[in-house]
Amino acid sequence: MIGVTNVSGGYSSVSVLKDISFSVKKGQLFGILGPNGSGKTTLLKMLSGVLTANNGEILIKGHSISSYSSKKLAKVMAVLPQNTTEFFSYTVKETVSLGRYAHQDGWFNTWSEKDEITVQKVMEQTGIIEYQHHSIQQLSGGERQRVFLAQALAQEPEILLLDEPTNHLDLSYQKELLDLLKRWTKEQELTVLSIFHDLNLAGLYCDQLLLLKDGQINIDSYPNEVLKEERIKNVYQTEIKKHPHPHVPAPQMLLLPDSEYQEGHLLEINESFLSSTEECIVLVSPEPLKTMSSGVIGSGSGWYQNFINRHVAKTYNCSNHREEMKDFIQDLGYGPSDTVGMMTAVNLGDVSYEFYQDGEFSIFVVVTAGVGNAIDASKSELHSYELEPGTINTWVFVNGKITEEAFIQSIMTATESKVKVLHDQKVKDSVTGTLATGTSTDSILIASTQQGKELEYAGTITPLGKMISKGIYECTTNALNLYRKRVKT
Ligand SMILES: Nc1ncnc2c1ncn2[C@@H]1O[C@H](COP(=O)(O)OP(=O)(O)OP(=O)(O)O)[C@@H](O)[C@H]1O
Question: Which part of the chain is the ABC transporter domain (predicted)?
Fold first, then answer.
């Protein structure tokens, strides 16, 4: 639909764009990214014929842009400029109607039924029909933005050029506008080229991204390839972290504020943060910790500050145990949104915890172990599905900085070590009579301060893995012995 070959140029004295080549297919939502001053608006001006390239060629539907008259080009391409600040005292409908000029022989004297139907349709699509008789000066910035979008659409273009279309729009209108554009690209094969400052919106909606730096193409590829941590860091000169979107396969880039942490004041989680009553074991960290857990609340990945292992009766049965747990935590005076909470029927006096240190990093392990529901995982199909609170709850606090990979490896290493304890202690599955590997409701938490030594791996023979293996083995064995003494299994 659009072909750009070796284009250079800009303003009379300066050549802003240098040897730019790319193509845009029909029906694509194509994003143009780049830091301030990188040439995005200049490129859009060349594609819309406002500026002429010094060198190279721009083809629109296979024909050189220079072969189009401005009226002919307006039938193919509409432009929604950035910050449309100049507007007259037209009504909304009059403003939108101006978009029909390319389809008319004269001005309003040739207003046809087709013109009227088109204007009504685009006002409906952009949600502005209810203010069609209002003056555009009475509208908010976001509402006005939609009026100018409707004006561009009234041209019935095949190509739509947008300069930061979500500027002025609140969150819901940003989503609405981009959903709309995406739908038009899919259903009507509208080709959309848009400048984005918000890398996350670009990553979420675009089919293809062009990243400019100093008037040159850094990369032209699919979003996951363009939005790479190192690349964005280099082009935008800022610290950034890439993260997958939690619900759709799109990359998200997160800014990193300057850390408030002072060198030499590393947080160390240890016994001094732990307190225990008959009702619960609580660890309150002075700062949020990065966690991965299978708690009743606070599960998955996140940042949490309070960690609670709550005793419940063996007969505890609640239809909505998550809500009940949240209420319990709230009543204790902790914010459920900042808390990872687990449950156990084990007497909390039988908890086992230990601090382990290896010079540059340390861990703090806390375990409660009940094996009333011990299960051999290789034969668990012989069990009925009943969640009982007789369980091994394992907490590992890492005083160090660990990778996502190390989080997952920590869970594997801790689990392998726990299984070995059950074997060495000859804990059996009561249904199958074979050695158990865990209980039906075991829970685990890995929480890291993300300060100090960087720990890339936590497999069993890595420094962190060795410490976790030993800590889990010792604390689980100890907790199990205390439990067995009391319960006499
Ligand atoms: N009318 C002009 N005359 C001369 N130079 C200009 C003109 N407009 C822009 N420039 C220069 O061209 C370069 C690229 O500007 P452009 O507006 O294309 O950047 P951009 O990537 O759109 O930036 P932003 O993200 O800030 O909107 C800048 O160095 C700018 O100063």
Answer: 2-239
Tokens of 331: 């009543």
Q: Whole-angstrom Cα distance, residue 63 to residue 59?
A: 5
Atom of ligand 1 nearest to the CA of 197: 25
* Fold equal for 2-255 and 273-487: no
Nearest atom in ligand 1 to 164's CA: 27
Please give the distance, rounded to the nearest whole angstrom, from the Cα atom of residue 170 to the centre of ligand 1. Answer: 26
Among the atoms of ligand 1, which is closest to the Cα of residue 13?
4
Q: Name the strand (E) or helix (H) holding 3.
A: strand 2-9
Cβ–ligand 1 contact at 16 (below 6 Å): yes
Q: pLDDT 10s per residue in the chain (489 long)?
A: 999 999 999 887 778 999 999 999 999 999 999 999 999 999 999 999 999 999 999 999 999 999 999 888 988 999 987 656 566 778 999 999 988 877 776 555 678 888 899 999 999 988 899 999 999 888 887 788 889 889 999 999 999 999 988 887 888 888 988 998 999 899 989 999 999 999 999 999 999 999 999 999 999 999 999 999 999 999 999 888 888 888 898 889 988 877 654 556 789 999 999 999 999 999 999 999 999 999 999 999 999 999 999 999 888 877 788 999 999 999 999 999 999 999 999 999 999 999 999 888 999 999 999 988 889 999 988 887 665 656 999 999 999 999 999 999 999 999 999 999 999 999 999 889 999 999 988 999 999 999 999 999 999 999 999 999 999 999 999 999 999 998 865
Q: Is 267 in contact with 397 (CB distance < 8 Å)? A: no
- Structure tokens given for 216: 């040159």
DSSP string across 312-373: --TT---TTHHHHHHHHHHHHT--GGGEEEEEE-S-GGG-EEEEEE-SS-EEEEEEEE--TT
Q: Rounded to the nearest whole angstrom, what is the distance from the C-alpha of residue 250 to the centroid of ligand 1?
A: 30
10 Cα–ligand 1 center, Å: 9
Domain 273-487 has CATH 3.60.70: yes
| Separation of CA 194 from chain center | 22
Q: Is the CB of 165 under 6 A from ligand 1?
A: no
Q: Ligand 1 test: best mutation among 16, 198, 211, most atoms within 8 Å of CB? A: 16
Tell me the ipTM for this assembly.
Answer: 0.97
Distance CA 289, CA 302 (A): 8
DSSP 8-state secondary structure symbol assigned to residue 58: E
The domain locations on the chain are 2-255, 273-487
Going from the Cα of 201 to the center of ligand 1, the distance in angstroms, rounded, reads: 23
Which is the closest atom of ligand 1 to the Cα of 39? 18
- For 2-255, CATH gives 3.40.50.300
Residue 155 near ligand 1, beta carbon < 6 Å: no
Q: Can you tell me which atom of ligand 1 is nearest the CA of 45?
A: 18
Of 32, 41, 213, 216, the residue with max ligand 1 atoms within 8 A of its CB, to mutate for a pocket test, comes to 41
